[in-house]
Amino acid sequence: MAESSLGTATARERIEARLDRLVAENRFTIAVVFPAVGAVLLLASAADLVGPPLQFNPGLILLGTLVMRLPLVAGVAPLVDRQAAVGIGALVAYAFGIELVGVTTGWPYGEFEYLVELGPMLFGQVPLGLPVFFLPLVLNSYLLCLLLLGERARNRAVRLVAVIVTVLLVDVVLDPGAVAVGFWSYSGGVFYGVPVSNYLGWVLSATVSVVVLDFSFDRARLTRRLEDCEFMLDDLVSFVVLWGSVNAVFGNWIPLLVAVALGAGLVVTDRFDVPVRSTAEG
């Protein structure tokens, strides 16, 4: 049994090392090129400048999202032990559950419907890739706050409140952009087509998700990995590039300013410019 466990651990470490190299060697492509191309395709699709198979192609949307998530996956992978795996599994179940409730009842986000299939749809109502879209937003917010707070992140109350607020700011960028390109729509909305109820719902989802993540991962190990792994927040770089661009084109100025603020947080923590700098050195 001991030899089997050792062999499994060694194989896992080899896979993690290869994934680290893959991301490190392709940082600019993953963190900048993919979201830039994605923004162009989304905007062209929304404006009917392209038709099938490129227009809102579900496979391309899901593939592009998975590629942009690679830095986060590679960064977190070595920290996923049994406790973290259980926590992630619980959040996956929660994401599907709350989204299905939301689509069918309008609670807690307000009445909304998907206008575009974002990959295969579960029960024809919710994207099967929903955890890939949702969970990284929370984890990226958590990681950014660990860097920005520094020693203050040791205080759980300060840490949790900061992350919850950051998750809400991320959604201030995401939802108006997604509504603008036609991913989904709400029944009424005072903030760029998004109702206040959506953000109240996100307070609930953000609180649940952040609390579960906080108990699932060892904060000290997560902080050390974050400090050592320079590409760990590249997924948030992609988010700023993609949805910042979309909001800019549609004139969603408040979401754009929030995206700029998130980008400033990445610059302050010496993360945003790393992909460009690494490529230039290469």
TrEMBL record:
Keyword Translocase: no
Keywords: Membrane, Transmembrane, Transmembrane helix
Keyword Transmembrane set for record: yes
Pfam family membership, one: Caroten_synth
Segments passing through the bilayer: 28-47, 59-80, 87-108, 128-149, 161-187, 199-217
UniProt protein name: Carotene biosynthesis associated membrane protein
